[in-house]
Structure to design on (333 residues):
C-alpha cells in the first residue's frame, strides 16, 4: 500500500490481521454477495464510537428495525436499514433511491413515519421532506461489530476526504460513516449512491477496497459511471443472481477491471461537473429490433387422415370434370 501524505495508515501490528494485508483479501469472488433489495433507509444516530455491536438494538434504530421485521409483508419494496453518523443531525432519515431526507424523526414518530412513507409511499404527514442531490458514499467503520471494518474503514474514509478536497468536490459528494453492511471479511466495505447519465439513482456496493482504490472510484465510478468489477459486490435493484450474470458478461478481456455501465438495466454513478456540466456520456440504449410474424397457415401442414385424402381427391376430380364439360359445351355452340 502506497504511503499517502496526511493519511492515517494502519499500524503494522494490525495490518496483517485486520487490515489490507490480511490473507483473506481478494480470496473470494465477491460479485453477487448482496441480496436483492429496492430501497435503502439510513437513520442518522450518534457516532460510530458510541454504537453498540448491534446498533439496531437501541433507541431510534431499534424502533425502525422492529417495524421492518414485524411489517415486512406490508412493504411493496424490499427495504434495507442502516445507521450512519448523526452528530447534530440525530433523527434525520435518508431514503434511497428516492433521494429524500426527513429531519428530526423521534422515537414516538417512527410508527406514523413508517406507515406513511415506507408502507404507503406517501410524504410523511407530520414532517416535511427535503430533496437531496449529488453522490453519497457510505463507508462501514463499525468497529464494535467487527475489527476489520474498524481498522480499514477509517483509513479509506480519510483517503476519500483528501481526494474529494483536492478535486474540489466537497459540495457534490457527501461522505458518511455507516454501520455494518454485511460480510466483514470483505472489508473495506462501502456503498455509493449516485445518479447515472439518465438521472437514475442506484446503490453500488464495493468490497476489498483499499485507500489506493479511492482515486479510481472517484474518477471511474463517480465521474464516468464505470463499474470497477474487481472489487464490485453488486447493485441495489438487481434481482437475485443478476449481479453475477452482469459480472461475468462485463469482464473486459484486457483485464483492466473496469466495466462501463449502461443506463438501461445496469446503471451507476455520475457526478455533475463544475457549473452544472455533467461528466457523463450520453448512452441512449438502441431500440430492440421488432420481430415481424407472418400469417399462420397451419391447416395445410397438418397430417390428413386417409378418408380426408380420398374425399379431397374426389372433390378435386369432380371439379376437374365439371370444368372440362363446361369447356366442351362452349366449343360445341
Amino acid at each position: 500500500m502506497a504511503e499517502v501524505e496526511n493519511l492515517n495508515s494502519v499500524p503494522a501490528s494490525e495490518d496483517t490481521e485486520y487490515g489490507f494485508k490480511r490473507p483473506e483479501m481478494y480470496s473470494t469472488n465477491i460479485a453477487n454477495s448482496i441480496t436483492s433489495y429496492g430501497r435503502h433507509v439510513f437513520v442518522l444516530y450518534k457516532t460510530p464510537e458510541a454504537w453498540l455491536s448491534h446498533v439496531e438494538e437501541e433507541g431510534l434504530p431499534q424502533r425502525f428495525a422492529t417495524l421492518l421485521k414485524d411489517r415486512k409483508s406490508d412493504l411493496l419494496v424490499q427495504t434495507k436499514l442502516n445507521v450512519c453518523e448523526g452528530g447534530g443531525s440525530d433523527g434525520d432519515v435518508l431514503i434511497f433511491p428516492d433521494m429524500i431526507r426527513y429531519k428530526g424523526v423521534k422515537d414516538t414518530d417512527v410508527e406514523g413515519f413508517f406507515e406513511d412513507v415506507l408502507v404507503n409511499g406517501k410524504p410523511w404527514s407530520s414532517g416535511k421532506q427535503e430533496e437531496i442531490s449529488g453522490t453519497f458514499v457510505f463507508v462501514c467503520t463499525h468497529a464494535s461489530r467487527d475489527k476489520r471494518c474498524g481498522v480499514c474503514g477509517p483509513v479509506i474514509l480519510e483517503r476519500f476526504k483528501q481526494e474529494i478536497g483536492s478535486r474540489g468536490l466537497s459540495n457534490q459528494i457527501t461522505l458518511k460513516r455507516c454501520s455494518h453492511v454485511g460480510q466483514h471479511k470483505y472489508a473495506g466495505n462501502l456503498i455509493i449512491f449516485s445518479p447515472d447519465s439518465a438521472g437514475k439513482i442506484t446503490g453500488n456496493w464495493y468490497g476489498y477496497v483499499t485507500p489506493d482504490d479511492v482515486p479510481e472510484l472517484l474518477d471511474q465510478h463517480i465521474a464516468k459511471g464505470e463499474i470497477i468489477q474487481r472489487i464490485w459486490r453488486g447493485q441495489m435493484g438487481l434481482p437475485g443472481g443478476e449481479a453475477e450474470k452482469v459480472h461475468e458478461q462485463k469482464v473486459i478481456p484486457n483485464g483492466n477491471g473496469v466495466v462501463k455501465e449502461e443506463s438501461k438495466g445496469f446503471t451507476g454513478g455520475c457526478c455533475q461537473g463544475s457549473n452544472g456540466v455533467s461528466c457523463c456520456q450520453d448512452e441512449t440504449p438502441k431500440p430492440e429490433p421488432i420481430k415481424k410474424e407472418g400469417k399462420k397457415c397451419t391447416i395445410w401442414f397438418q397430417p390428413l387422415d386417409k378418408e380426408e385424402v380420398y374425399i379431397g381427391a374426389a372433390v378435386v376430380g369432380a371439379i376437374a370434370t365439371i370444368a372440362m364439360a363446361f369447356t366442351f359445351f362452349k366449343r360445341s355452340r
Notes: DSSP finds seven helices and twelve strands in the chain. Confidence is low (pLDDT under 50) at residues 1-7, 246-256, 261-307. Helices lie at 12-15, 59-70, 110-119, 147-167, 214-224, 242-249, 306-332. The two ends are 110 Å apart (CA to CA).
